[in-house]
Amino acid sequence: MMVDLQGSPDDRKIAIDQVGVTDLKYPIVILDRLHEKQQTVASLTMSVNLPHHFKGTHMSRFIEVLSEHRGEVTMRTLPTVLKQLKAVLEAESARIEVRFPYFLERVAPVSGATAPMDYDCWFIGEVNGGSDDFLLGVRVPVTSLCPCSKAISDYGAHNQRGLVTIEVRGEREAEGHPALIWIEELVAVAETSGSAPVYPLLKRADERHVTMQAYDNPVFVEDMVRNVASKLQSDDRIAWFRVEAVNQESIHNHSAFARIEWKRPSV
Amino acid sequence: MMVDLQGSPDDRKIAIDQVGVTDLKYPIVILDRLHEKQQTVASLTMSVNLPHHFKGTHMSRFIEVLSEHRGEVTMRTLPTVLKQLKAVLEAESARIEVRFPYFLERVAPVSGATAPMDYDCWFIGEVNGGSDDFLLGVRVPVTSLCPCSKAISDYGAHNQRGLVTIEVRGEREAEGHPALIWIEELVAVAETSGSAPVYPLLKRADERHVTMQAYDNPVFVEDMVRNVASKLQSDDRIAWFRVEAVNQESIHNHSAFARIEWKRPSV
Amino acid sequence: MMVDLQGSPDDRKIAIDQVGVTDLKYPIVILDRLHEKQQTVASLTMSVNLPHHFKGTHMSRFIEVLSEHRGEVTMRTLPTVLKQLKAVLEAESARIEVRFPYFLERVAPVSGATAPMDYDCWFIGEVNGGSDDFLLGVRVPVTSLCPCSKAISDYGAHNQRGLVTIEVRGEREAEGHPALIWIEELVAVAETSGSAPVYPLLKRADERHVTMQAYDNPVFVEDMVRNVASKLQSDDRIAWFRVEAVNQESIHNHSAFARIEWKRPSV
Amino acid sequence: MMVDLQGSPDDRKIAIDQVGVTDLKYPIVILDRLHEKQQTVASLTMSVNLPHHFKGTHMSRFIEVLSEHRGEVTMRTLPTVLKQLKAVLEAESARIEVRFPYFLERVAPVSGATAPMDYDCWFIGEVNGGSDDFLLGVRVPVTSLCPCSKAISDYGAHNQRGLVTIEVRGEREAEGHPALIWIEELVAVAETSGSAPVYPLLKRADERHVTMQAYDNPVFVEDMVRNVASKLQSDDRIAWFRVEAVNQESIHNHSAFARIEWKRPSV
């Protein structure tokens, strides 16, 4: 029989917060709001804690647990996967981070032309003893047009691609589960907080529309994060959020950014 | 006179934690342990907070403040830069993140052949009202050889490049400054925690030496973070650290990792 | 009616080789060797030439053509997509580059445990007047163990993850189509050219097996590209190839590489 | 004495085009046009060919040769480094690729405020038997404003950061050296081919200036590459160029691009 070094004792008396696998590519299935399944490709990080008296972790078990569930990695299945990781790896806490491109069919504002557009999304699920955590993140490209540039110039205004990143945690519902928040909802919050949405396919009538929409609706990065914050604060399902906006400035070789983190005050 | 939109009031009553510039490339000078100056190229993020009643920040002032100090960005000059940012931008807090490659001349273990090797490093400095913070980070490549693979095989053992990332905060000294910790010291801590150091230039006698050194000294990612943790805990100057080790597994297409965060208990 | 600037004449007398869209993310379906469809996510570059007398291209048409075919982007459908691009954009040449992760179910060598593993792949299709071109590329991670390190050391040998990149063009068959070469075949060529294959899931018996397999089979980067070259030269379907091997050296912070480009001599 | 495996014979009869080191970080000194030295950090690829009868290359010699010349890697010193690589590695051809950020002090158009701005640059030098080659590349960020968006909208126009990449080879002068072309000259060619230059530091009067400059000067990606091509074709020192422009479209999540490659016709 082969020696099990990982299972042997360790006497340095130092516990490890997280140990596991990272940069693992895996095909996954996501449920979208229209209750259809979307197949995509994820990059995963999976870990457990390691008590101070154990020497090592059995890394292959992460892949085995994932393989059992490969049909679906969603907010609803993550708790089961996490419980299984804890059991199989004899750990007190387990954590999974899943990053993936997610596609939504977008409709051009005037012509009605449609095409899929990609959004970088991520879930982070964690169980630690009896408590658990779930975070949803979305990165949404938007157009941002500079209010200062518009105000001080006789004509025109610099604008650029902005990236709005929103991460949320849901309030706990009666039965203890976090409130369900859809990727589609966060995309809408971000898109209505910039100068204009970004589209995969625009015909000329659409381009005219978004050009003037952006000019009519100038925002600083500061405005974008405040607009997002204001909408999320007024949504009772949101317990916590972090929002960041980054403008890939068209007049500079660096970017401008703003960031707000917020937790709903307990009543 | 041109309108100052950024300076106009805002009534959404939402303060912003950080607003500023990011992905800014800048030539900087770092002091190394031998008290010589090292010229390198940094990527910077600079930000301040924005009280809820101000609409925007004057982004160009970040660059202006940086330009005044361009000769030097070090643990000793950062407090001055941060104070100036607070003053010039009328803010309560300011934060600077500086990431740069840093070179150390390395000597091969047998032949004595020397060449410079690069280490990714970063400083994060922050002032917030009367308090301040300083964090130093270093990423160090090492060789890691798998103890399990060695133990269960008749010969050989898989090994790979591992990356050990250490971030530290220093204990406060009598006059309130954080204790000075050198990049060179953290590199040494990381390199003695893997199976063997990594070198820029090895002749055949050196390659023989490091091959056998690694085989004689197998470590899991778990061992690497514990080895680092143990050394830092016994160094009285360290108030807090976070250490992460990532093995770019030579037998897998994903990586293994481990992570420990620690704060010195108050006496 | 809105002005069509792109369609207006240009008098600089400078033709453009390629004009189009790049960094376009799109969900695609690939046919795999077992004749099943694999859904994945691609990054696309699509372009046409632009004669000197035209001012601009209608970029939205690239997305429209792609959307018509979104069900499938394969070696067999690419010619149709390219022909349509030429027609719709009134161009003489058209080119598509499709990059995507592709998953293969891999079986561990001793335990038989299975899990999917990802391979970066790409197609480049081009039509130019009456002629056409098709290139298939695959990047395959392998284990490489250094022959020099093994030969000069009393025990052990440094090894690391190596990346073998193969690009091929097929010989023309009777009816003019390039010979069909499967991703699965190029993966096999690469994996049998390193010291040992890389797997997504290995149990301890498997780890023992691949550790000793790699030690028994040391290769330089030079050997890896020659091994691949030798196999491809003896495969009559191959008209041209380029192979590159990169070793992420476990004893250095830089990589070693080798590269061969070859064209079958005409008879 | 240790065995020299790399120097042993190989009987597969397959020559290798390039073998060497890549992703090597190294501090370098560049000569700028004002004849001052600029210290920066390079990423290098260095290689030689390998005749079919040799088994391997002595990789450490690349680092040794580089170390001898570390004070300077320029168009004028590269030929010497390449000759030395050929000699030390007993090869017929040698090739060096050096990529580095290069800083130029930029002056804001109205306020005169100055700050350094970074440009990604590269040299590729090659000797092959008696012939040699030298290529200079520069990537320059610019503002590009869409002519179509301006023409079809009642007000405003979408604009964005564009990246103009220029690579050139110089004509041979009387004594056989390629004509000297400065990074500063290619930066100027790129910046005058977009809608407006991009600056590191702009005060409000400057922002007003570049906003209107861009609006007055709309360009498609097609125009940008043609503008660059036209300037380079009329410069007798240029023997060959490749120019690419990529617009990070502010209304899309993908980019638009155009590309021209050109060789001066022999007289």
TrEMBL record, chains A, B, C, D:
Reactions catalysed, semicolon-separated, are: GTP + H2O = 7,8-dihydroneopterin 3'-triphosphate + formate + H(+)
Q: Does the keyword Hydrolase apply?
A: yes
Q: Which UniProt keywords apply?
A: Hydrolase
> Which pathway does the protein contribute to?
Cofactor biosynthesis; 7,8-dihydroneopterin triphosphate biosynthesis; 7,8-dihydroneopterin triphosphate from GTP: step 1/1
EC numbers for this chain: 3.5.4.16
State the Pfam families in the record: GCHY-1
Annotated site location: May be catalytically important: 146
Per the record, the domain of life is Bacteria
Alphabetized InterPro entries for the sequence: GTP_cyclohydrolase_FolE2, GTP_cyclohydrolase_FolE2/MptA
Record-stated family: Belongs to the GTP cyclohydrolase IV family.
Q: What does this protein do?
A: Converts GTP to 7,8-dihydroneopterin triphosphate.
Instruction: Identify the PANTHER family for this entry.
Output: GTP CYCLOHYDROLASE MPTA
Q: What is this protein called?
A: GTP cyclohydrolase FolE2
Record organism: Anaeromyxobacter paludicola
